[in-house]
Each structure stands twice: as structure tokens, then as C-alpha cells.
Amino acid sequence: MTVMMVVLLTFITSASAVGYEPVQVSEETVTAYISKLEHKEGQLFIQSDDIQWYEGEAANKIFLEREQDTGDLDGPPDGYYIINDNEELTTYKVSDNVEVLMQIYDRDGTYEGMDINWNEPISLDKFQTLFSNTDMMDISQFPYHLTIQDGVIIRIVQQFIP
Q: May I ask which residue range the UniProt record assigns to the signal sequence (predicted)?
């Protein structure tokens, strides 16, 4: 048993010595309002205003801390609370294989076609078309949860707001 541990330890030490380090994948999710979609050199970029999104008890707590005259309210009326203290815009590159999940959007140009369908996958092309079409619904008015891996957006999830 001791011999096996020494051999394994020697292998790990030598692998590190020759540059075989584990790949570090940095992934985070930010919540933001998307202000602009822009193509540069064949690549899509999203310009967004990052926000802080709170739900449930966390929303109640921050609501009471930040709102001075709440009347009879002991929390935000719709169960969520948004803070946007810094309106600085951030630009992110979008992966060609990004996953886009929508909750509500203009599917067919009618009000009846704008029903809620939780986490409905759509293509990036369709998302871009919807973003530029504000006739029936302006989807830029919804927050989005952006999953970013190594500086590139790999997932876009629309946050439904009542």
C-alpha cells in the first residue's frame, strides 16, 4: 500500500512539474438588463446593465432596508426586488452555441400568442429577431440571467416579471 502511494505521489508531482495542470473553468451567472446586441467581426456581443435580483425572504429583507415609506407592505408587492445602483454597461461575447431559454415573448404577432411557456428554448437567431421587434412586446424590458464561462455567455435565461 505504501509503495502504491509513493508511486501515485511521484506521478502527480511529475505531471505538475511538466505543466499538466487541471484546467480551471471559471463560470458565473449575472442578472442583467440587455441594452444592446451588436455584431463585430462576425461575433455577437451583448451590452448589459448588471443588476441584483432578489426573491422571497431575501427580497423582503432588502425591500424593508431600502424603502423608507412602505405603508402596510412588509415586502415587495410581486415577491421580487431589483437593485440597480450602478448603471455602468458591460459587454460580453456570446458563444455561437449559446442556450437561450424564454418565458414569454411574441410568438405570432397576437396577444394570444404571448402566453407563458416556462424555459422554452429558442435559437440565438430567433432571440436576435425578437430583441429588435418591439411591436407587440419589448423583451429588453425583462431581466436575464446570463451564464458566463471564461468571459463568454453560454446561457441566456429570461426572468419573467409579473
A: 1-17
